[in-house]
């Protein structure tokens, strides 16, 4: 059915059906539900038809047909809700018009291309011993010292970590422990700028050589442990030393500096046992308390080995622990060598 309404030629049937069909289907569903409720539940006061109207009159079930056709020509569309005023349509609808062609790819807006700025890797790290660092400088293994080793306060523990050289230490290191590694040589640059370093322990390595001035740049160094290595000579040490341990090396007397301990006024402990020394390294500082020289090759003592040959009243009161056992020496043959001592040395009689 074609209808002309307000000057527009339009086929109203599809539009009316689109509006009416849902309402019609909803109404039919409600009616069927009501019928089924009455059939299965029986009459109810709340669902009863008005007084004077029988169920047959209210629901003409005998004459109702679900397959009956709707009289569309006489259908009143206003019974299903608000009507629409098609005069308000802004766009003219023409019968038989074709949908417009889809826009071409060339006419579609193109996404703007944003060039991302390339982030370059940081410049190579330049080691700064004087600069701050949370984990210390990188080691020769390519990782910070305090990740390879254990750093607690100013102490750095690198024991038994497979090191073959001294790692670069944080500048605030006070105590360094590099025991039981594979270090063979110690360079004079290994402890640069470590002005707070007080103690170095390299026990149990394979050190056979050291640069001569390796320790002289350490103004606060007072403890050095180099036991159980392969040293034949010892480097020059700062006069601040208090504790020196060179046990079980290959030290020979010519490898010890002449008068190398004389000016160490704070030296108290000197351990030189199990080496190849031929004589006692004199003169010894007055503050020395412990001197261990057992298991060397010492064959003789001199009057001024411990005492002062020019002062008969001189007494070395502090030196109470002297060990000379294990040497080819009979200490009874040299009584003048220890008359100034508070105790006799331990050795063969």
So, CATH architecture of the domain at 149-250? Alpha-Beta Horseshoe
Number of strands: 13
Could you name the CATH topology of the domain at 149-250?
Leucine-rich repeat, LRR (right-handed beta-alpha superhelix)
Taken from the alpha-carbon principal axes, the silhouette is rod-shaped
Given as residue ranges, the uncertain stretches (5+ residues, pLDDT < 50) are 1-10, 123-132
> How would a crystallographer describe the biggest sheet?
9 strands, mixed
Q: Determine the structural class based on helices, strands and strand pairing.
A: little secondary structure
CATH class of the domain at 149-250: Alpha Beta
Protein name: Opticin isoform X1
InterPro entries: Leu-rich_rpt, Leu-rich_rpt_typical-subtyp, LRR_dom_sf, LRRNT, Mimecan/Epiphycan/Opticin
Pfam families: LRR_1 (PF00560), LRR_8 (PF13855)
Main location: secreted
List the helices and strands and how they pair.
Layout (H helix, E strand, L loop, with lengths): L2 E3 L2 E3 L1 H30 L13 H4 L86 H4 L1 E3 L2 E3 L17 E3 L7 E2 L12 E3 L7 E2 L12 E3 L17 E3 L23 E3 L18 E3 L28 E3 L26
Parallel strand pairs: 4-5, 5-7, 6-8, 7-9, 9-10, 10-11, 11-12, 12-13
Antiparallel strand pairs: 1-2, 3-4
